[in-house]
Amino acid sequence: MDGRRSDTRERIRSVAMELFSERGYERTSLREIADRLGVTKAAVYYHFRTKEDIVVSLSEDLRRGIDEIVNWAQSTPPGSERAREILTRYGALLHGLGSDMVRFWHENQPAFRDLGFGTSLRYQFRTLGDLMTEPESEPLAIFHARQALLAISWSVSMMGDLPLTDEQRYAAATRIAAGILAKS
């Protein structure tokens, strides 16, 4: 039973991201999510009381994934290998979450600000940049590290219209990001 419940929860999250991307967060209702899934609003309500709860669950996935990268990096000696591995792991995280979800985060900044996620995500992003440049952490090196992370983020959120597979976008973004990082 837990497997079915978990599957339904994931389907709700997936469909919500599709609709949020298509229609916008503010213009999407739980009713529309239920209709797209072919279930009652009560079935959606069983898993998520509000659409904000859906966004919270998705944001927790991202924050948890970044926390895992941070914890790994903090237990690994600093240097260029660690920096490249952070890029690889960050890219895998974003590409694993899916383009609809990442595009939603980029396109719905007011919703994130209103729900209080923006500050913690910005802090985590800055932490990754700092970890990529330790032990020196020169401002220009941090700038390049953050730009490299942004290259990965943009490959998911802004390049979905190109006739490339997710794997091709991920590989290209990782190469570009490594090139940016190498310039620091």
UniProtKB/TrEMBL annotation:
Alphabetical list of PROSITE patterns matching this protein: HTH_TETR_1 (PS01081), HTH_TETR_2 (PS50977)
Pfam families, sorted: TetR_N
HTH tetR-type domain residues: 6-66
Keywords: DNA-binding, Transcription, Transcription regulation
An annotated Gene Ontology molecular function: transcription cis-regulatory region binding
UniProt keyword Transcription regulation present: yes
Keyword Ribonucleoprotein: no
DNA-binding region: 29-48
Name of the featured protein: TetR/AcrR family transcriptional regulator
